[in-house]
Amino acid sequence: MTENKRVFLDITVNGLSLGRIVIELFCEIAPKTTENFRQLCVGNAGLAKDGRTKLSYKNVSIHRIVRGFMIQGGDISGREGCGGFSIYGECFDDEHFVEKHSKYVVSMANKGPNTNSSQFFITTSEASHCDGKHVVFGKVVKGFDVVDALEKIRVDQEDKPMMDVMISNCGELFRKKNNTKNEKNEDDRVENNNNHKQQKEQEEEEEEDEKEEDKEYIPETPKSWLYREDNNESRSSKRERGREKGDRRERSRSRSRSRNRDRDYQEPRHDSSGVRIKGRGHVMFRRDRSSTPEHWRVNAPTRKFNQHN
């Protein structure tokens, strides 16, 4: 017995996500109908016979909602319920009418016998009047709240939603395969990790025991070795050192002042011409000749320069 395939439809209302509907397909009961619906969800069937319409439910609207009955969509040609294409052509024949139209089943919409295309509907309550006329090919397995929310959307007189309801995304779901070998390997890894942790903890405990034994043989460190004083003692010692430095500075200043007081004060000296003599030493110029008498300077001959015209 083959496992039924599953597809999904992501619904948006006015551009806002409403949720996902997951549908299980009855592949054995209606293989042709389910394959048509699956490929339209996946969207890899290419274009329809008209050469323009893409065979996909993506970005297709939910164009009809009847409260207490069903939700209809799937018109991929965009004619709001008057068009549609299948992967086999414009239409294909009905298959077996085995399943009944109970609540939350998925069935094909048609215009009469053997006129199945891409349009489908999801029942929101039992619809026995559709039995024998529409092919049931799947059922909703997840997203019942999404179906109920769609049924409550306001519609006009022609059952058309007054909000923009779209299938924003769609595709096929695949079941994850259980790999027993990988699970076994993972279990082995977990056991190995646990054993490694236990071994590591045991080694750490042994190291701690060795350290405790070694501590017994280590002599106590004398206080004089790298001994630091208390904060109060260190502060008082710093204050004493500062006072000693201040005393030394004061003594040096007093010495310099006393030296200056001991020096002999001398009046500024001048030479014979009245120029002040700088420096502390004695006058060192020669004095072996006497100064020129004043009357010599007065009677000294003056030079005359001839002026040329």
TrEMBL record:
PANTHER family, per database record: PEPTIDYL-PROLYL CIS-TRANS ISOMERASE (PTHR11071), PEPTIDYL-PROLYL CIS-TRANS ISOMERASE D-RELATED (PTHR11071:SF561)
Native species: Caenorhabditis angaria
InterPro entries xref list: Cyclophilin-like_dom_sf, Cyclophilin-type_PPIase_dom
UniProt entry keywords in alphabetical sequence: Isomerase, Rotamase
Catalysed reaction, written as an equation: [protein]-peptidylproline (omega=180) = [protein]-peptidylproline (omega=0)
UniProt protein name: peptidylprolyl isomerase
GO MF entry, a single one: peptidyl-prolyl cis-trans isomerase activity
Any GO BP: protein folding
Region span, Disordered: 176-309
The EC number(s) this enzyme carries: 5.2.1.8
Primary enzyme class: isomerase
UniProt domain PPIase cyclophilin-type: residue ranges: 8-172
Biased composition regions of type Acidic residues, renumbered to the chain: 202-215
Lineage: Eukaryota, Metazoa, Ecdysozoa, Nematoda, Chromadorea
Basic and acidic residues: compositionally biased ranges: 180-191, 226-250, 259-273, 285-297
Cellular compartments per GO CC: cytosol
